[in-house]
Specification:
The chain is of the alpha+beta class. Helix content is 35%, strand content 25%. It contains five helices and nine strands; from the N terminus they run ααββββββααβββα.
C-alpha cells in the first residue's frame, strides 16, 4: 500500500460522521412522509368506518360516536380521547335513531378477527354484520365475510340467550346461527366476539327511546 493509498482512505471518524448524517436525513424523510400521509390515512379510516356503520344498521344515513366515560355514554367531540371504549349511534333521515353499531375483536383460527355489528335495542336483535379485519384461511375461514349464507345469519339474530353456533342447516332458535362447514373455529370466534360485546355494552346502553339525538353537524 502506497502513501497515496493511505491518504485517500477516509478515517473511521469521517465514515461514522457520514453514516450518521445519512441516517439523520433518512429519519427526517420518514418523519416527513409519516406526518404528510397521516391525515389522509385517518380520513380513509374514518370514511371506511362510516360506511361500515351505515351498512350494519339498515336504513341509516348518519352516525355519531359515543364513548363510555365516567360511568355514562357521552357524545364524542374533537377533544375526546381516542382510547375510550366507543360505539356509534346510527340515524335515519331527519335524525331518527335506528340502532347501535358495536365493535369487537378476538382471536380466530389464525389471527385476530375484528368486526362491527348493528344492534336494534327495541327488538334486541343483531341486524347486520361486517368483518373489518380477518386473516382466516382462504377458502374456509375467509367465508365469514364472503359467504352470503353466513351473512344471512345476522339480519335478525336474537342476543338473549347468548348466541350459539350450530352445524349448518340445524339452527332452530332465533339466537342460533348456522356455522360454516369446514370453518367451525372461525364461525365460533365470530359468535364469541358477538356475545362478549353484547355482554359488555348491553348494560351500558340507554333505555329504548332515550337515545341521544344526533348533534347538529353530526354524521361521523
Amino acid at each position: 500500500m502506497t502513501a497515496l493509498d493511505v491518504a485517500a482512505e477516509p478515517s473511521p471518524l469521517r465514515l461514522a460522521g457520514t453514516l450518521g448524517v445519512a441516517g439523520l436525513i433518512a429519519g427526517l424523510l420518514l418523519v416527513v412522509a409519516y406526518e404528510t400521509t397521516l391525515p389522509r390515512i385517518e380520513r380513509n379510516r374514518a370514511d371506511a368506518l362510516q360506511r361500515a356503520v351505515l351498512e350494519v344498521v339498515p336504513g341509516a344515513t348518519a352516525m355519531q360516536r359515543l364513548v363510555w366515560t365516567g360511568g355514562a355514554l357521552a357524545v364524542a367531540d374533537a377533544g375526546t380521547p381516542s382510547d375510550l371504549p366507543a360505539i356509534h349511534a346510527a340515524y335515519a333521515e331527519g335524525g331518527r335513531f335506528l340502532g347501535w353499531a358495536i365493535g369487537g375483536e378476538a382471536s380466530g383460527f389464525q389471527d385476530v378477527i375484528k368486526l362491527l355489528f348493528g344492534f336494534d335495542p327495541q327488538r334486541r336483535v343483531i341486524v347486520g354484520l361486517r368483518i373489518l379485519e380477518s386473516r382466516e384461511t382462504p377458502g374456509l375461514g375467509d367465508k365469514i365475510y364472503k359467504d352470503q349464507d353466513f351473512a344471512a345469519n345476522f339480519s335478525a339474530l336474537a342476543v338473549e340467550p347468548p348466541i350459539v353456533a350450530r352445524k349448518k342447516g340445524s339452527k332452530r332458535e332465533p339466537h342460533e346461527i348456522d356455522a360454516i362447514t369446514g370453518a367451525t373455529i372461525s364461525s365460533k370466534a365470530v359468535v364469541r366476539i358477538l356475545n362478549a360485546s353484547v355482554a359488555e355494552w348491553l348494560q351500558r346502553l340507554p333505555a329504548p327511546g332515550s337515545e341521544p339525538p344526533l348533534k347538529a353537524g353530526g354524521g361521523r
